[in-house]
Write a structure and sequence with these properties.
InterPro entries: Kelch-typ_b-propeller. This is Galactose oxidase. With 245 residues, the protein is mainly β. The protein has no helices and 20 strands. Helix content is 0%, strand content 45%.
Length: 245
């Protein structure tokens, strides 16, 4: 994880399942916030794109950061989401906020960013969540907001198959933005946690089984979280949650 808000930094931290440790690479991306990271399982790296005031691309190999210099890049934005398509070996980026809300789709092929032009696409939005569904082999997207006051959130569910976006029924799940989402390898479901419902911060957990969302009741949920990062620790078969202010 690269340092973030409330005060932008460019420190690099790693989580080993028990504790965070500070990495001191010879070069790092500039200070930033509201960027996105995804794990590139094809190249065994972590991909970083953008952040407030940036549209640069970096790769982390576990020891060093390396800036990539593609011939084309998505425009500068915040509030976007990314996921890694493991079937096709590409990072997928959708939406965000520039001068207005965005509805564009981009893919990173390891060398360059390519803008995609699907026949169908979700409405423009920011602060949505995306993650790879290894069972259905699709990128899943849920929620977000296109309301500048943040009072009205979205509750729609979409899948990206590499060529087009397909909307799926959400089944009446509560709308939210600023939430986190990751795959649960034990339950074989997608988990979403936290976020903002338009009225309050949330600490509820919902699960997507490929057909519908259901609420999961947990005895000791994390605190209410607005600005949540969820990730899966495949070595320990656990999801972990980090709140980003």
């Amino acid at each position: 994880m690269l340092g973030s808000a409330p005060r932008s930094t460019n420190t690099t931290w790693g989580w080993d399942g028990q504790r965070w440790s500070l990495h001191l690479p010879p070069a790092t991306p500039p200070d930033r916030e509201r960027y996105q990271l995804v794990t590139d399982t094809q190249h065994n790296t972590v991909l970083l794109f953008g952040g407030q005031g940036f549209n640069d691309t970096w790769e982390w190999d576990g020891a060093t950061w390396r800036e990539r210099r593609p011939t084309t890049s998505p425009p500068t934005r915040v509030g976007f989401a990314m996921a890694f398509d493991e079937r096709r070996g590409r990072a997928v980026l959708f939406g965000g906020l520039a001068t207005g809300h965005l509805d564009d789709t981009w893919e990173w092929d390891g060398r360059n960013w390519i803008e995609m032009h699907p026949a169908h696409k979700p409405t423009a939005r920011q602060f949505h969540a995306m993650a790879w569904d290894p069972l259905r082999r699709r990128v899943l997207m849920f929620g977000g907001t296109n309301d500048f006051s943040f009072h009205q959130q979205l509750a729609d569910t979409w899948e990206w198959d590499g060529g087009d976006w397909v909307q799926r029924s959400s089944g009446g799940v509560p709308m939210r933005a600023f939430h986190g989402m990751t795959w649960d390898p034990i339950g074989s479901v997608m988990l979403a946690f936290g976020g903002y419902t338009g009225d309050a911060n949330a600490n509820s957990t919902i699960a997507w089984d490929g057909t519908s969302w259901t609420t999961r009741v947990t005895p000791q949920p994390p605190p209410f979280a607005n600005g949540t990062i969820l990730a899966t620790d495949l070595h320990r078969n656990r999801a972990f949650c980090v709140e980003v202010p």
